[in-house]
Design goal:
The complex is a heterotetramer. By secondary structure, chain A is mainly alpha-helical. Chain A contains nine helices and no strands. In chain A, helix 3 packs antiparallel against helix 5. Chain A is globular, with a radius of gyration of 18 Å. The mean pLDDT of chain A is 94. Chain B has one domain. Chain B has one helix and no strands. Chain B is rod-shaped, with a radius of gyration of 21 Å. In chain B, 20% of the residues are buried. The N terminus of chain B is likely disordered. By secondary structure, chain C is mostly helical. Chain C has a domain of 158 residues. Chain C is built from eight helices and no strands. In chain C, helix 2 packs antiparallel against helix 3 and helix 3 runs antiparallel to helix 4. The two termini of chain C are 29 Å apart. The chains are: A mainly alpha, B mainly alpha, C mainly alpha, D alpha/beta. At the B-C interface, helix 1 of B face helix 1, helix 2, helix 3 and helix 7 of C.
Amino acid sequence: MNPFLAALRKDLLLQWRTRSQLVAVFVFGASALLLFSFAIGPNAAALRQFAGGFLWLALLLASTLALADSFESEMAQRALEGLLLLPADPRALYYGKAVANLLQLTLLGAGLVPVMVVLYDASTARLPGLLGIVVLGAAGLSAPGTLYAAMTAQVRARNTLLPLLLFPLVVPALLGAVKATSLLILGDPMGQLAAWTWLLVAFDVIYWSLCGLVFERVIED
Amino acid sequence: MNEMTEMTEMTGVIKGGWEYVIAAYLASAVILLGYAGSVVWRYRRERSRRDAPR
Amino acid sequence: MGKSVWPFGLTGLGLALLAWGTTWGLGFAPREAYMGDVQRIMYVHVPTAWNAMLVLTFAFLCALVSLLRGGWVWDARLEAAIEAGVVLSGLVCIQGSIWARPTWGVWWDWDPRLTTTAVLLFGFGGILALRQFVDDPVKRAVWSAVAVVIAYVDVPLVYFSVRWWNSLHQVQSSPETVSRAFHWPLRINAFGVLFLVAGLLELRARLAFMRRETELAPPPPSETAVAAATR
Amino acid sequence: MTALAVETIGLSRRYGRRWALSDVSFALPQGSIVMLAGRNGSGKSTLLRVLATALRPDYGSVRVAGHDARSERELVRQKTALLGHNSFHYEALSARENLAVAASFLGRPYDPSLLARVGLEARADDPVTSFSAGMRKRLALARVLLQDAAVVLLDEPYGELDPPGFALLDRVISELRSRARSVIMATHLVDRGRALCDRALLLEEGRLAWSGPAAQMPTEAPDGSAVA
């Protein structure tokens, strides 16, 4: 069996076994969306204008929980080290975990979209486009997020360190995702969606390749 | 200093503004000299701790 | 790492140049046509910005060498460069904010360069925090080098995304619309900050190297015998 | 010179200011069954983890199963199996799933009889979180057997096992011996070690204090305290 597929199978199996954690993270994201609307107040027009931004902030905050969980199971009983000693190719392990995290974050994002539509009256006719942006944005979070989750899982102040390292890094992906989402919801008179989508794609390509390269150094002892 | 400084519209000459220049240079001096001092002090302390017989 | 005192000399020279450039810029340089005296902040803001980017680029190089070739010297220089990079980036943001107040009436004007510096400040500040929390020196060296490489590669992406994101808000105001007559104080201060920081980088790197020596036990007595025996 | 299972020259590994292993040199021919003895903190686990390439050596050279532990880690890992203090298993997955995951990386078909051999067939589909320490050790043993390695590294394998577990482990070791595999077992059960093993290594504070035939390993230090 190809190592990447073996790793992906392992990660999907793990995520399926611990799916209650994903539900908890989703509830966290949904409650964040609710809290954001309290910050703005019941002003429908304003809520609708910031809907894209709130969706991605909620997903960003929830993603750190999901990413941290994804590596807690790898570090317990040195499970990841056990695989490395078989041997298992570190790069395959990274991409298996990153793709599994991408799927999880996409599920999370897709789950938060209806909540956003309801709370902020922010519906869009171009739903496939929105889901496409959710996938690209989730990919932008999962590539560096998986790497930093692997790093911070081995450190004592992991809950603060993961967001501290991840948030400044993903600014371009966040900007791209928020702008693209807002254009889809509020309309795109000047046709900027393509530009922001290409920015997201560029960010994903760079970090999906770079993080794969350096992952081995992060988990060696 | 909380009232808005007198400022003409975008293209006009900004009158006054010296207090901002002073503030900028003061901040720069404090941070640059402060950092320089802290590096030199920490370096000296480590050197003395290292040269002193352990 | 050397013991010689050239870093102190360099730092001193840097401070002297800064004093000279500042007095020139504040005292003798002509008042700028539109922005009046506020424009004099440029003589310290622009040199700091240039050098902040230079130091972070140096940190990137140290990270690459530390990852590819290893050696505690490069990890020490990396630590120094990250710290200096954070200090300078922080200073650039403060200066930019003070400059924006009289010019735009707000404390932060989302200028793409300034906003990128702010993102770098938090990014590299996070890496400094990472170095505090990792106890094993080897892991600390490798992880912070990896984090620096990843954060540095992000700079162009951050800059472009912020510029596009900000392009609707206001016309692109470039603080560097500096005509020839203003160049000298700017250039003098630029070298002033450069020498000052270069000297401090060396001292801070030596400090980090010494700490590493006390942190790691010396090689075992038979190190020499081992070297001969390893094929 | 007969093929060597393990050869270390001047092996040293530090943890911060302390030398967990300092200047350890020994050579073990293939097929030898070795007891690794020493008090707590003498470096037994560190040595086994360096041999398994879980830890990189700081100084000195290490060759396992004919490969260098630094430059040929992948090859060494194919030829070694480690039974460590940690079970190497995913707590959320079941015993069967854990072995199936390991088998998928090894590129070998999952052998259902393995769980029967270590006496876990009744609990095959329960998640490892519900396992006792002894059951986790048995599952880890099944995983070592699954790897079918040339050099088997056992770090205090008897710990947490019940008497039937002891018997199971004895059978496994003698079977490895009959198949000319090399075994290095770190243990405090010196008598059992002497009976099963033909050679012994004694570690004291990271240094190799003694090595030779297992039967002749000294049990008392000059000051009368137990050596291992």
